[in-house]
Design goal:
Elements: H1 7-15, H2 21-26, E1 34-38, H3 45-51, E2 56-58, E3 65-68, H4 77-80, E4 84-86, H5 93-98, E5 105-108, H6 115-124, E6 129-133, H7 137-149, E7 155-158, H8 162-168, E8 173-179, H9 192-197, H10 202-220, E9 221-231, H11 240-249, E10 253-256, E11 264-265, E12 281-283, E13 292-299, H12 320-336, E14 344-348, E15 351-355, E16 367-370, E17 372-376
Parallel strand pairs: 5-6, 5-8, 6-7, 8-9
Antiparallel strand pairs: 1-3, 1-4, 2-3, 7-16, 9-13, 10-13, 11-12, 12-13, 14-15, 15-17
Helix pairs in contact: 8-10, 10-11
Length: 381
């Protein structure tokens, strides 16, 4: 079914200089592209390609991402096992621009439902720390479910306001991703309801909230770290405009080029933004995915002696009863598993969890899960 585009949206897009509007509009006669990303925590990509029971072709956005020729159900057993994540193809580009490496401390500030968070986790390969946050409780529960399904053992899942979280963990992270809530214009082809709910004032309202979130995120990043801002909208005020206003507020940040040449350069002239904003990237439907905007930012060093993230943290504390439970768990683990314990066990309410080694100081934050739920102690069992 062809989506009915809002008239005001269509006229704004038609008026953008340098956009091939006819080609852009023609894409809405085609169905949205389907994609999946191989979860390399569960399976090597090449092994997946050789074994997959459905037709695949590679995307330009991510080495582990593929187009699907036909729909694949979320009920597929491989999906339940976390072997792959059903993800819109161009949505994979933001984490590629972030480029987190094993051992880093990474924050995904607006993480639900978990596509980008689990992609970050796959790049970390169980080393370092992933803190993923969602402010809406129901969405945070969906995020936690996907973190568990994909076998992520070094994550902390929070349900917290961005301002509170970033003030508490100032300068803690090597990388921060802000996949900001937006007007959703880039998803009109995929989600017709987003087109039905769009109105002319929505982009400006979203842009104000996006700038606020981005400024919060900037405080959580260490000097020299990488901050990626992404949206799934075409609106210049939410894309180039937000980056331009952010750079005017934060002189310690600069835009960097994105090495992977997906999509096309951003268009600073659409928002009267600084020329450097052209280093960001835009993705249009004719580029092989739904609409996205991605900017990579670097926090300049100010010559201060910031403490690296790996030297900051807090270990879970246990009372005497907890120590007894932890001793039972440790003995059980040694008897039944050959691999060494990969984190610090702690007890809460009769349940045992394995915390990530770089667990940040989370006192006062709404933590849904820190690390892995390992089991419950029943008496002496």
């Amino acid at each position: 079914m062809k989506v009915e585009l809002p008239a005001a949206f269509t006229e704004r897009m038609r008026a953008l200089p340098g956009l091939d509007f006819g080609r852009f509009l023609a894409e809405y006669d085609r169905p949205p592209l389907r994609g999946l990303r191989v979860n390399t925590l569960r399976c090597a990509t090449e092994s997946f390609v050789l074994s997959a029971p459905f037709e695949l072709s590679r995307t330009p956005f991510c080495d582990d991402g593929f187009y699907l020729a036909e729909p694949v159900s979320g009920r597929h057993p491989w999906h339940h096992a976390g072997v792959f994540y059903l993800q819109e193809p161009s949505a994979m580009a933001a984490v590629e621009a972030l480029a987190p490496q094993p051992g880093m401390a990474v924050l995904d500030l607006c993480a639900a439902p978990g596509g980008k968070a689990t992609q970050i986790a796959a790049r970390l390969q169980g080393r370092g720390l992933l803190v993923c946050n969602e402010v809406i409780p129901a969405r945070a529960r969906a995020l936690l479910s996907n973190i568990e399904r994909c076998g992520v053992r070094n994550a902390v899942v929070l349900c917290e306001q961005p301002k509170v979280l970033c003030e508490r963990l100032q300068g803690f992270f090597d990388c921060v991703l802000v996949d900001a809530p937006c007007s959703g214009e880039g998803m009109f082809r995929r989600e017709p309801q987003a087109a039905a709910e769009w109105h002319e004032d929505l982009p400006a309202a979203c842009a104000a909230r996006q700038l606020e979130i981005l400024c919060c995120a900037a405080d959580a990043l260490r000097e020299g770290g990488t901050l990626v801002y992404s949206t799934c909208t075409f609106a210049p005020e939410e894309d180039e405009g937000v980056i331009d206003r952010f750079l005017k507020r934060r002189g310690d940040y600069e835009v960097e080029a994105i090495e992977r040449p997906f999509g096309r350069p951003a268009m600073p002239q659409w928002a009267s933004a600084a020329p450097c904003v052209a280093l960001a990237r835009r993705i249009f439907p004719e580029d092989g995915g739904e609409g996205h905007f991605i900017a990579r930012l670097r926090r300049r060093s100010q010559g201060t002696s910031a403490v690296p993230a790996c030297q900051t943290g807090s270990e879970p504390k246990s009372g005497s009863d907890s120590k007894s439970a932890l001793r039972l768990f440790t003995e059980f683990y040694r008897e039944n598993f050959q691999a060494p314990l990969y984190g610090e066990p702690f007890e809460r309410g009769g349940s045992i969890y394995i915390a990530p080694p770089l667990l940040p100081p989370t006192q006062g934050l709404h933590v849904m899960r820190a690390g892995v739920f390992a089991g419950k102690v029943r008496g002496t069992r």
